[in-house]
Amino acid sequence: MPVTVLLVDDEPLVRAGLRAVLEAQDDIEVVGEAADGAAVIPLVSRLRPDVVAMDVRMPLMDGIEATRVVLRTVADPPKILVVTTFENDEYVYEALRAGADGFLLKRARPAEIVHAVRLVAEGESLLFPAAVRQLAANYGTSKARDAMERAALTDREAAVLRLMARGRSNAEIAAELVVGVETVKTHVSAVLAKLGARDRTQAVIAAYESGFVAPR
């Protein structure tokens, strides 16, 4: 089955460009478009896309609020890929904190766009580049540090979280730690549960905000 994508951007040319790139792939299908975050909920409910490529800045409802609404109101929500002009935009970081699964620059090359959609759809590794890692570290708080200490991760869970924070997939983590992929999945689930994180993105944000992992 192809990965289905909903495009949400107030610029028609951006939507057209993304559609052209994605529909050139045999394993990706663009199932709809919207010009504002306010239109996302009914489209997601009707089309059930695997991924929403969401502009972070839109006039009526921006990508941050649209992300929150989708995750709060849609059962089994899609993955959300934030699309932005600037990689160090604090709006991007707020969207990730709200639950987005990764982000994509509008100036990205076609191969990067396709890779981002596939990666987010798989859900086993992250689009969390250096600029965003630094933003996360800048948001560090004593509350985040205390929460990480209370999580009391085992040594193996800590190692898995550090590799997650570097964007490693489950298969890559398994190879690096010389364990099975199923074992890695078990550790990932334990990390998410202990941190009270909805997904890998939220766990990695907690890792950077707490200082558990330093940006580099």
TrEMBL record:
The modification 4-aspartylphosphate is found at residue 55. InterPro entries: CheY-like_superfamily, NreC/VraR/RcsB-like_REC, Sig_transdc_resp-reg_C-effctor, Sig_transdc_resp-reg_receiver, Tscrpt_reg_LuxR_C, WalR-like. It holds the Pfam family Response_reg. Gene3D superfamilies: 3.40.50.2300. SUPFAM superfamilies: C-terminal effector domain of the bipartite response regulators (SSF46894), CheY-like (SSF52172). It comes from the Bacteria. The keyword Chloroplast does not apply. The keyword Phosphoprotein applies. SMART domains: HTH_LUXR, REC. Residues 4-121 form the Response regulatory domain. It comes from Streptomyces silvae. This is Response regulator transcription factor. Residues 146-211 form the HTH luxR-type domain. Keywords: DNA-binding, Phosphoprotein, Transcription, Transcription regulation.
